[in-house]
Amino acid sequence: MLIVNADLEGRIVDIRFDQHIDEIASGLIPGTGERVLDAKGGAVLPGLHDHHMHFLATAAWANSVDCGDTQIADAQGLQRVLQQHPGDGWLRGVNYDESIAGELLRGQLDGLIDQRPVRIQHRSGKVWMLNSAAVERIELQAHASQPGVEVDAKGVVTGRLFRLDDWLRERLASDLVTDIKALSDELSSYGITGFTDTSATNTDATAARFADWHSQGILRQRQLLMGGDELCNGPLKVILDEDALPPLPDLMARLERARAVGRSFAFHCVTHVELLFALSALQAVESDPRDRIEHASVVFDEVMPLLRDSGVSVVTQPGFLWQRGERYLKTLSGHEIDHLYRHASIAAAGINVVVSSDAPYGPLNPWQVIHAATERRTSEGKIIGADEGIAAETALVSYLRQPHSLTAPLRSITVGSDADICVLQKPWRGLFDRVADTRVLMTVGNGALIYHADAEIRRQ
Ligand SMILES: [Zn+2]
């Protein structure tokens, strides 16, 4: 395949690739039958990699309504939110409480929404409530005798399922595939060709499922999985909770076991105490430049030298300032606010800092995350840590880092590199002026066109 008229850091070039980039030059002649894609002078860069996200949770949230949201006060509020949710496939609600609209049997739920299959989970997690479209979709009446399926006096299913999570998940397997495909497409539309799934619950079985979705073409991105002790390859994710820190000897034994089989570490640290604890554990094991601190939400000045000497990278989420900034301002102390999601000063201290999304908890769109790293504004426009902003260009570099080693040389558009390519709708010049509005023209993942802004070309 050939991409022509691409702006490679100010130079217009053509790029020939299969699974790798084979040639970069101007005036390349298309071979017989070779597909040609016109970049129209748009900036070309390596496909982006989001270094911290939770893929399956993001896929699930995309088609979910949080019924516990404070804006949903009554049946009308719930109806409005369900009706307005985009799409026409399965819709899932979570966190439902009877105080909103009472007991939800299929009839009541049909009254709120009946044009698409809907299932709502009670906030206890024990009950699912289905509308009639959902009941029909999974042929629930045929399973009326299954324990946990509620029926009325006439033996007709009511739409309520008690403690049937696994059973329901099995019936909805195709639903999961739809969710994965949709999220993979969304990532492609942002220019993302890879992600690191940082869920501590990932195991070898999860890795096998991801590999399977990848080989079936459902999931188009490359993945690096971190996980717990039941994952053989990939970083060990260590969740620290300052109210329940593990005994240090136990943690050390765990780290040493992981290190012995070549694994690096990623510590989840959102408080000062958690960060100190992680750094003291790291001091006691052999160092590895691949080790990381996830979030480092609060970094006080006195911790900075320790952080630098540990040689870790900090994986931060500036998007939280936008998404949760108003809540931080209300709930955190002034001292914490002043040291929240710092970036510029940590980088100036000689520590490698990488931005990421932490989707679904932070905004997924990398261009929005990059913008947040420069502006540091809350959704109401207040600035948190004005001196901690960085240039958009620097934030973009995060997405070009190697997933396995955040300190290794950047991925680049060079002959021989993987054909993971992102072409933007504007040239390099002026790219960073309004970075949040950046639009992708096309994305190539592992040599295949996985996104094109022109739906006609995408379908070819
Ligand atoms: Zn996370």
Describe this structure in words.
By secondary structure, the chain is of the alpha/beta class. The chain contains 17 helices and 22 strands. It has 3 domains: 90 residues, Urease, subunit C, domain 1, CATH 2.30.40; 116 residues, Roll (Diaminopimelate Epimerase, Chain A, domain 1); 223 residues, Metal-dependent hydrolases (TIM Barrel). It has a 6-stranded mixed β-sheet. It has a 5-stranded parallel β-sheet with strand order 15-16-17-18-19. Strands 3-2-1-4 form a 4-stranded mixed β-sheet, with no helix packed on it. A hairpin with a 5-residue loop joins strand 11 and strand 12. The longest helix has 17 residues. The radius of gyration is 24 Å and the shape is globular. 40% of the residues are buried. Bound molecules: zinc ion (ZN). The site of zinc ion (ZN) has 4 residues, from loops. The site of zinc ion has 4 residues, from loops.
